[in-house]
Amino acid sequence: MISEGSTLPDHEFTFITPEGKVTRSCRELFGGKRIVLFAVPGAFTPTCSNAHLPGYVVKADEFAACGVDGLCCLSVNDAFVMRAWQREQNAEAITMLADGDGCFVTKLGLGKETGAFGGLRAQRFALIADDGVVTRLRVEAPGQFEVSDAESLLALL
Hints:
Blueprint: E1 12-17, E2 20-25, H1 26-30, E3 34-39, H2 46-65, E4 70-75, H3 79-88, E5 94-98, H4 103-108, E6 111-113, E7 120-122, E8 125-130, E9 133-139, H5 150-156
Parallel strand pairs: 3-4, 4-5
Antiparallel strand pairs: 1-2, 3-8, 6-7, 8-9
């Protein structure tokens, strides 16, 4: 599992834009920046939609005031689902990272198998990365939502 002091693995993410599909690498997203990345088990799921993502949406300006260059939400969903969820949640300030096949969470060592419920998903976690290096990492215990919320990450800055 990735840990504090680790460099985020190289990966290509796909985004849906008005111009169509766009691909950006981890280096482009995280290089030379301080980024907060939080992961949810699934877009449109109850805790993710009612608390996790909304907390970051509401606190986006506070993160910026603390020197955070960007907020990223990661989920094992496709780019179309992540774009639709972003719109539905008024989360334009959040970069939505679609990990359609779970490859990125697997590289991080933070995937979890949910069987027939949804297959491979991300564990709920949050991290702070400076220039692609993890400086803080908080991973939730199964079924919990206590250490990866926006308030908890703000307290680490």
